[in-house]
Here is the input.
Amino acid sequence: MAPPTESLHIQQRDLQGVKAARSFVNQQLTAWGLTDMADSLQLIVSEIVPNALIHAGSDVDVRLRAFDDHVRSMYGIPAATRLCRHRWRTARKATRRRSTAAVC
Here is the structure.
């Protein structure tokens, strides 16, 4: 069985999307019974999402995937974006978008 996965799409320049992303993380982790990870993932979302919205000027896809021992949060942003490249693992997707992932 595949791990539970949920996603949220935030439109370009929607600065209220940051609040929506934090709420999405909190709601999903609560639903999965993983509230102990909420603070860390909300902090990550609070850094990555506004940077993508403001500096990359693009839509952002936030995806959470729950595993037995960790949660992976992934952020789909355009390939030109260099956000947190030195700190987070990145992987190129076929859609020419860059996906930044953080594991808690």
